[in-house]
Amino acid sequence: MSHTSMDPTKMGVGRSIAVLTSGGDAQGMNAAVRATVRVGLYTGAKVYFVHEGYQGLVDGGDNIRPATWESVSMMLQLGGTVIGSARCMDFRGREGRTKAALNLVKLGITNLCVIGGDGSLTGANQFRTEWSTLLIDLLKAGKITKEEAKRSSHLNIVGMVGSIDNDFCGTDMTIGTDSALHRIIEVVDAITTTAQSHQRTFILEVMGRHCGYLALVTALSCGADWVFVPEMPPEEGWEEHLCRRLANVSRGCRLNVIIVAEGAMSRDGNAISSEDIKKLVEKSLGFDTRTTVLGHVQRGGTPSAFDRILGSRMGVEAVMALLEATPETPACVVSLSGNQAVRLPLMECVQVVSVPHRLGSQAEELFSHLALFLLSNINVAILNVGAPCAGMNAAVRSAVRIGIIQGHNMLAVHDGFEGLAHGNIEPITWTGVSGWTGKGGSELGTKRLMIILLYVTPVFTAQLVLSGAYVGGLELVTAREKYEELCIPMVVIPATVSNNVPGSDFSIGADTALNTITSTCDRIKQSAAGTKRRVFIIETMGGYCGYLATMAGLAAGADAAYIYEDKFSIRDLETNVEHLVQKMKTDVKRGLILRNENCNANYTTDFIFALYSEEGKGVFDCRKNILGHMQQGGTPTPFDRNFGTKMGSKAVLWITEKLKEVYRHGRIFANTPDSACLLGMRKRALTFQPLADLKDQTDFEHRIPKTSWWLKLRPIMKILAKYNIPLDTSEHAHMEHVIKKKLSVPEPLMK
């Protein structure tokens, strides 16, 4: 269906949308509810809350209430779901669904947005399938009129998946998964310090009755020694293998960590619990062993920046899907593939999920990083260059260990190019990178804007893998004409908080910086909520790239975000001030303005602060915060730990294969464009792109890409801040189909 000619602000006129959350709660549900309400109101539709999930839908009355713009204020940073969720037995019976249909018909609601797991979405689809027969029953019983039945002849349903287990087919990440990983990693990092003090073995049990995603990603994020997941029962004799593994590790390490999913089982179908493993380790090895069952801690706490943005994007997409739907359109789920919003037929997803073991597409790829094989011997030197960022150490650790597994000799170059020039190089071992995954900054020391992996032959002929600055990699490629020593395979891996490297939608370190900014904004908003009539102006990092300011604005609910890529004038500043003046007349008496550090040479943070202070005099007062280098610090988020691990692994595997191609007559010679690549995430996949091909996509003066995917999210931020601006609906997701993938994983599954 073409929707380029539609006026989005008129799409919902005369229509009503209800939103409910069902099943287990998940952090980020509130962001989805908030976006659904505000975008629904933006389109001219009436929007209703359904409190207490399907139970509220059945009971009706005060459980179904009109939603207003202000009613979803300050929801972004709250965990759980503020409109409530409940397990509902009544809705499973036809009588209960008939009551629910009556309540919707009486209010004229024909669009239902359901946020929940596969059980909740299956119930929604059944409700939609039965809708016409439910109306007939209600007509026969005299509970609705023919006019009411005609007005509500069709029910549109769109689902958003809220589940911390990431157990729904068709989406890379479900709402709540990233936040659950944040809670788990916080606990793991805390336990690690006490475990190292006493040379203990710790066994952590995480949620995941049928899906081992949380356990697997946790294992990769913390460098665990073993992981048990439901999808892959360990091979026969795993007990002996595990003990042998722990005994070998303990010789050079003060800490053993084992991660167990709650649904882990053996090949004969018997459960493997954390207590079972504890007894085994204590009896066989005599190790001091402790178990920790995290339980509902994983569901709690404030949502991560990723889940807030995911929920917000899915909420927008859900409203558009509802208003564009026809009677012939199947009920759909809006989900995420790479960084792209997609729509998938609801029942296709549920049917694939219904198999005994459920595994997300990201988890399938993570399994593949454990399937490694021994290759030829090469000396490999690794160095970090440039501004440090969280996740660098995870990439280095991954590269070192994958290289060692492949039979390479690994060398560490300290202090970047300067260290390389002065010969500050030493061997680095498997245990030398122990515990690096959770460390922020750069353990190797850094001088410029990238991580560089330098492959070196015994005579110091070099093959390079660069990680971070595109410009540095391009200079080395250009220098091949002059120096034959640089005719070697190269890979650039983006590693910068600014997320400004062309050829990749994401950079290592950006997620950690984004969460730091978002959590700071939460605290600032909280103080503003207490003092009332206060506007905060916050300056973020990013160079000339507005990624951090824009995404933090979306995650924190900012009123405006000034960036270099989206030019603004004094008239725009005046409009923003007037918008805040009007906002202070509502119940929401606070404002949040973000400014990228290099958005405009003249409209500085001080200038904007002074302008807002003067124009808002008597209505609101202002405060300013420059966040500075705190954005580069801190421990890496689960995303950056795993992104770094994945990128380091892929880079080493690629360079090894490339070396086979360029090895001729006893020497290595690589001067083709495809022998010097950037490894980046583009939409839905990690791809290797020749550095030379990216020149036309780069603004070298400002060190940013000429086009950025996230700029399309800026209108969403403005609409959610109640600006009446156009929303381009021409590029909204179209319905796709679920692609079933065959999973192949190595055995035994262990770190």
Overview of the molecule:
With 751 residues, the protein is α/β, with parallel strands linked by helices. β10 and β11 form a beta hairpin. α13 packs across α20 and α16 packs across α17. It starts with 15 loop residues before the first strand and ends in a 31-residue tail after the last helix. The chain has a 7-stranded mixed beta sheet, sandwiched between helices. The protein has a 5-stranded mixed beta sheet with strand order 14-13-12-15-16, sandwiched between helices. A 4-stranded parallel beta sheet has the order 7-8-6-9, with helices on both faces. It is globular, with a radius of gyration of 27 Å. It has 21 helices and 27 strands. InterPro entries: 6-Pfructokinase_euk (IPR009161), ATP_PFK (IPR022953), Phosphofructokinase_CS (IPR015912), Phosphofructokinase_dom (IPR000023), PKF_sf (IPR035966). Its EC number is 2.7.1.11. Its cofactor is Mg(2+). It catalyses: beta-D-fructose 6-phosphate + ATP = beta-D-fructose 1,6-bisphosphate + ADP + H(+). Pathway: Carbohydrate degradation; glycolysis; D-glyceraldehyde 3-phosphate and glycerone phosphate from D-glucose: step 3/4.
What is the fold's blueprint, element by element?
Elements: E1 16-21, H1 29-42, E2 46-50, H2 53-59, E3 64-66, H3 94-107, E4 111-116, H4 118-140, H5 146-151, E5 156-161, H6 177-198, E6 201-206, H7 213-222, E7 226-228, H8 238-250, E8 256-261, H9 274-285, E9 289-293, H10 305-324, E10 332-337, E11 340-345, H11 346-353, H12 361-368, E12 379-385, H13 392-405, E13 409-413, H14 416-421, E14 425-427, E15 450-456, E16 462-467, H15 470-478, E17 490-492, H16 510-531, E18 534-540, H17 547-556, E19 560-562, H18 570-583, E20 590-596, H19 605-615, E21 621-626, H20 638-662, E22 663-664, E23 667-668, E24 676-682, E25 685-690, E26 698-699, E27 704-705, H21 714-720
Helix pairs in contact: 1-10, 2-3, 3-4, 4-11, 6-7, 7-20, 10-17, 13-20, 16-17, 17-21, 18-19
